[in-house]
C-alpha cells in the first residue's frame, strides 16, 4: 500500500510539474515594477554588443522568442535568479533556433561582465549596457535591475517579471514554452 501511495504521489507530481498553459496569462504589471514599456507593445529596437564583440538587435531577432534578462554583478537578487535561468531555461532551449536569451548587464565594463559570467557559471550570452541605455529603454530611471522581458515571435512584449519570485519565474517558463509552440 505504501508503494502504491508513493507511486500515486509521484504520478500526480509529474502531471503538475509538466502542466502547460494554453494561452498567455492575463497579467497586470504592477506600477511599482517600474516598467515604461507595456505588455503587447512592439519591443523597442535596441542593439546589444555581446561580450564576444558580436552585435545583435531586437529587430534582427524578430521571428524568434527572445528573453532579455537585465542584470548586474552587484545585484544579489540577480545572482539568486541566474542559476535558475541557466538550468531551467537556457539548458532547455539553447539549441532551439527559435529562442534567444541575452543577459543585459547594466553599466559595467567588459572585464567585469566576463568575470561575473564566469563566477555565476552561466553559459548564456551577456551583453554590455554602458550607461544603462538599453535598461532605461524598458524601465524608469531609478528602477531596480532584476527583471526579465519575454518577446514573442512577432516582436511584441508577451511577459515581464521583476525581482525573483518563484511563482512568477515558473509562469515565465510556461510562457516561453507556450510561445515556442506558436
Short synopsis of the structure:
This protein has 182 residues and is an alpha/beta fold.
Strand order of the largest sheet: 2-1-5-4-3-6-7
What structural category do the secondary elements indicate? alpha/beta
Rg, alpha carbons: 17 Å
Number of strands: 7
> Helical percent range?
25-40%
Series of H and E elements: HEEEHEHEHEEH
Strand fraction equals 15-25%
Q: How would you sum up the global shape? A: globular
**Helix count, per DSSP?**
5
List the uncertain runs. 2-18
Largest sheet at a glance? 7 strands, mixed
What is the mean pLDDT? 91
Distance from first to last alpha carbon: 43 Å
Q: What can you see in these coordinates?
A:
The chain contains 5 helices and 7 strands; from the N terminus they run αβββαβαβαββα. The longest helix has 18 residues, at 76-93. By secondary structure, the chain is an alpha/beta fold. Strands 2-1-5-4-3-6-7 form a 7-stranded mixed beta sheet, covered by helices on one side. A hairpin with a 4-residue loop joins strand 1 and strand 2.
What is the strand and helix layout of this fold?
Elements: H1 2-17, E1 47-50, E2 55-57, E3 65-71, H2 76-93, E4 99-106, H3 110-120, E5 126-129, H4 135-138, E6 147-151, E7 157-162, H5 166-181
Parallel strand pairs: 3-4, 4-5
Antiparallel strand pairs: 1-2, 1-5, 3-6, 6-7
What features would you highlight for this structure?
7-stranded mixed beta sheet, 5 helices, globular, 182 residues
Amino acid at each position: 500500500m505504501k508503494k502504491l501511495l508513493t507511486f500515486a504521489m509521484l504520478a500526480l507530481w509529474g502531471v503538475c510539474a509538466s502542466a502547460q498553459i494554453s494561452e498567455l496569462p492575463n497579467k497586470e504589471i504592477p506600477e511599482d515594477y517600474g516598467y515604461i514599456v507595456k505588455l503587447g507593445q512592439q519591443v523597442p529596437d535596441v542593439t546589444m554588443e555581446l561580450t564576444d564583440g558580436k552585435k545583435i538587435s531586437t529587430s534582427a531577432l524578430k521571428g524568434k522568442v527572445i528573453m532579455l534578462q537585465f542584470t548586474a554583478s552587484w545585484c544579489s537578487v540577480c545572482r539568486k535568479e541566474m542559476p535558475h535561468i541557466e538550468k531551467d531555461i537556457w539548458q532547455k532551449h539553447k539549441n532551439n533556433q527559435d529562442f534567444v536569451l541575452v543577459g543585459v548587464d547594466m553599466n559595467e565594463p567588459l572585464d567585469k561582465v566576463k568575470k561575473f559570467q564566469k563566477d555565476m557559471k552561466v553559459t548564456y550570452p551577456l551583453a554590455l549596457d554602458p550607461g544603462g541605455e538599453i535598461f532605461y529603454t524598458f524601465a524608469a530611471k531609478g528602477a531596480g535591475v532584476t527583471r526579465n522581458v519575454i518577446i514573442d515571435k512577432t516582436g511584441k512584449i508577451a511577459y515581464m517579471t521583476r525581482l525573483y519570485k518563484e511563482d512568477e519565474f515558473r509562469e515565465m517558463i510556461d510562457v516561453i514554452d507556450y510561445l515556442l509552440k506558436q
